[in-house]
Design goal:
By secondary structure, the chain is α/β, with parallel strands linked by helices. It is 38% helix and 25% strand. It has 9 helices and 10 strands. The structure holds adenosine-5'-triphosphate (ATP). It comes from Geodermatophilus ruber.
């Protein structure tokens, strides 16, 4: 059996007296679309930060693409093929859509060797255009990013992550603040991206999770409450209980 692209084993982190993530383990196989759900404050973002290297775990290990990356800074983890798209934090608001994606593509292209500089530039431009097509923003390539709708800014943020040709993409609430039609378009986009990128996502909207994820981890007060296929999560008595009582 091939090794999972990501393995988190016994991750733990407290902030003062708050046990934000309590002995959480995850295995994400290559090609998966895995969702993390849980109520506010259940540890989802902290878990992501422990995986990406933004926060150091007090215990536990993280393995990515066959390598132990525990405690490695995000800049280094990103170069190994792990990208994240959180809200719209990576978008340069005063640059065009094209420039935003090109800068990310160019930064990631340092690992390629070209005989002539012009070939390098051509490859970066071609890759940028391909990403814009994929995220559905080819028609907006010359628009200043801050003039895009919220939904399109989120797509652009995703495009910036994609431009680095990641092997694993972490998405934090990709449909947050979106209209129903923007949400539906993003669901389709995430499904399409999953054809060649493994995806780990935090998502609050239950209908989105159930239609998109092949596996779901439910966090509750920093601990893993349940993990399984969408239909099992939906019918699990404890998950139902915390949902119905409003604590999830
Ligand atoms: N840097 C920090 N300093 C202190 N406490 C923190 C810090 N980061 C997270 N926490 C606490 O850890 C707990 C888990 O927070 P976290 O943001 O991981 O949860 P979450 O599930 O992502 O919540 P939300 O859905 O609201 O984003 C919360 O009680 C939070 O207040």
């Amino acid at each position: 059996m091939t090794e999972p692209i990501l393995t988190a084993a016994g991750l733990d982190r407290s902030f003062g007296g708050i046990h934000a993530v309590n002995d959480v383990s995850l295995e994400i196989p290559q090609g998966a679309l895995h969702a993390i759900i849980g109520p506010n404050g259940s540890g989802k973002t902290t878990l992501f930060n422990l995986i990406t290297g933004h926060t150091r775990p007090s215990a536990g290990r993280v393995r990515f693409a066959g390598e132990d990356i525990t405690g490695m800074p995000y800049s280094k983890v990103a170069r190994k093929g792990l990208a994240k798209s959180y809200q719209i934090t990576t978008v340069f608001p005063l640059l065009t859509v094209f420039e935003n994606v090109r800068i990310a593509a160019q930064a990631a292209a340092h690992s390629y060797v070209f005989w002539r500089p012009a070939d390098g530039i051509r490859a970066v431009v071609a890759h940028t255009e391909e990403v814009l097509e994929r995220i559905g923003l080819a028609g907006e390539r010359d628009v200043i990013a801050s003039n895009l709708s919220h939904g399109d800014q989120r797509r652009l943020d995703l495009g910036i992550a994609l431009a680095t040709s990641p092997r694993l993409l972490l998405l934090d609430e990709p449909t947050a603040g979106m209209s129903p039609s923007e949400t539906a378009a993003t669901v389709e986009l995430v499904k399409e991206l999953n054809r060649d990128v493994t995806i780990l996502m935090i998502e609050h909207k239950m209908d989105v999770i159930l239609s998109i994820a092949d596996r779901i981890t439910v966090l509750h007060q920093g601990e893993k409450l349940f993990e399984g296929a969408p239909e099992d999560v939906k019918s699990h008595p404890r998950v139902q209980e915390v949902y119905l009582t409003g604590t999830l």
